[in-house]
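Good morning C.,

I know you're traveling, so I'll keep this short. The sequence:
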Amino acid sequence: MLTNLTVMERMQWIVLAILAAGIFSACGGGGGQPEVVVFDQSNAPQKLSDWHFMVNDGKTLTLNASLVPYDLNSALFSDYAFKLRAVYVPPGRQIAYKADGTFDFPVGSAIVKTFYYPKASGNDAAYVAVARRSQNEQGSSIDLSANVLIETRVLVLQPSGSWSGLPYVWDADQREATLKVGGKDVKLELTSANGTSEKFMYAVPNAQACQQCHSTQTAGGAGILPIGPKARNLNKTYAYGPEPAQNQLVHWADSQILAGFPGVAGAPVNADWRDTTQSLDARAKAYLDVNCAHCHSPLGAAFQSGLMLDFATVATVSPSPVRWGVCKTPLAYGGPGAPYRYDIDAGKPEVSLLLYRLSHYMTGDVMPPISRKVNHTEGIDLINAWIRETALPACE
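The tokens, ready to paste straight into the viewer:
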């Protein structure tokens, strides 16, 4: 059922379905794996397995060979969840490289992101016990004996040229994920290496919530775009498994899914905010860029706030540091009152509203405003140090 589409759009979608159903495709497949099937949002299946994005034998979750896994230099914080990211491009199609902004994907492309946690021992049987760790894992599979699957989000590019987002929640037996258009809360107990634990409700966002974060570059309008797949985020090495580790952009170009790539020497690169060998400025810019700038940019949903936290703006002094919060009073946020006056009070993180909002997870204060129920201690420490060391005059 391809409802609400023009005749031409329906024909495009049918052609894509035929291509995706080919027995052997240029993007992979074969080897006994079913071919990926792409769906219109109005006809999205209830079961994730119907897309054929991955194979789950009860022991290991493995990406279909038609999907290419990827990672980001600095990733969005999601309550310490690990993520297996992958992209699917229809056979014979290519992504158009852009030095800045989100890549241009062909119709029928999909971005598939599975959220999971390492298993842990908990204190309350009503909560799923998971470990609080930083992710270093790469590859194309998840070991189910050591990890617990929570959700898989699918962004698919429709024939109309618009992206649609669909959340799938993994069942208790970890064999199948079910479409939850309305989202779902999952009880988790986050356990640290020192034995301390924190109970919280992990929030799988509803399908409409995609609009809130992914309306980047559309000023909060109807269209949404992927956040991560930008040259500066993808310009890093990835361990693909049995293959040698390779720069991701080079790998995509070599795999014939990326067109127009000029080579690594000409590609921008974001810092890894966790890498202390890089400058504090570069790390903070990268952290704010991936966690905040999809809304807080000139074309993001929070542009009316006047707080611009995109990579091109943060840490610049022209035309004014006020654009990225220094000595800027909030326009739409009441805040906790005195002594908090500015988004960033140069040299004073303890009274800066930016850090205040990153340090709280109650409704009305939390930033980002959805899908964060836990404070990111390491990220807070980074922004704290960055504001404290900001080499700008103190606010009046």
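Safe travels,
E.
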